[in-house]
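Re: beginner question about structure tokens

> Can someone show what the tokenized structure looks like for a real chain? I only ever see the sequence side.

Sure, here's an example I had lying around. Input first:
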Amino acid sequence: MNHTEVQRIEANDKPGLRRFISFEKSVHKENRWFVPEIDADVNNCLSGRSSYYDEMEYKIFIATCDDKDASRCTALINRRYQEAKGEAIGFIGHFAAAPDRDSQVREMIGQAETWLKEREVTRIVAPYNGAGILGMGLLTAAFDEAPMFPFNWHPPYYNTYLTESGYQPTYPLWHYTIDFTSDKYQAVKQRTLKNHNVVVRPINKKLWNQDLETYRQLFNAAFIDEWEFHPLTSDEFHEFFDPMKPVLEAEQMLIGEVEGNAAGFCLGQPDWSPLFRSFKGKMGPIQIFRLLFSANRYSRAGLLGIGVLPDYRGSGLAQSLAVKLYKRYENHGLKQAFYYPVNDDNTRSRKFAESMGGTGRIIYHCYDKQIS
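And the corresponding structure tokens:
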């Protein structure tokens, strides 16, 4: 009979963290679409050296079967998220598992749920790494296709593990494809040329701190009603964006202004999946050099985030932001680009994508479960 044991790894247990971080790579290393997380990023979070985890309560779990690692996860509580949403929500993040390990996964998730319930959590969202910007969602379709960075590939059985543990696919995430030759896109593009009431500019790297703060304020205000986001601090924003600055193409990080007031933002993202797949979780001097050299060599890209302050909706700013980004991709030689991810209940954003000729499908889900 198989013997299951669920171990708790402490944040200062360096060998334990290395084991936790390397586990998913060992399971999926042969898959052509799998992109490992950057080891150092995960280690910084789970060892408590990340701004995102300064106020986070979390516990690290590894389940074994006959002394062989079978699955892993974290249980997380973000009190600022709870305060922003007015609900005692907790998370299960960093989920990974080997195939045919149903009992080990159920036991591990059960212990994570118990830990969360003891801390008065009443509902759990999974997978979600403590903050929306750090990673969330499971692939639920298109398993034989290359995922679009920064979203990752997962095997179909991950979804089975969650549903068998009582989780429901509550939060569908749409991915749209915008065809630059479509009549709808061309019509929107022509309308933006006639809109002289808005100004769209790239972020100014020479005024990085100032512009990044503007970007953060716009981000927090525009996404306040999206279920996966809560207001981010300046330290968190810098931790996420500062490492990207040397490779960031400013024309993919846009600020929109109306009558001189910052009123919206747009963030584009090249598909770096092939590049990061080749890194195998490492980010040393060689990988940094390759990123600096190759970051702007890509065959796919997309609009990862766009937001306009409520007072300026209807001004045409969103269209101008999106078209400015997409024109950059057209100039790069792309015939289409993505618009992703979009929450199923965000009808405004979905209609916006469709107004540009976007065709969409649900590719990822987040799950949830009521535990009291």
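Each token stands for a local structural state, so reading them left to right follows the chain. The CA atoms of residues 21 and 91 lie 18 Å apart.
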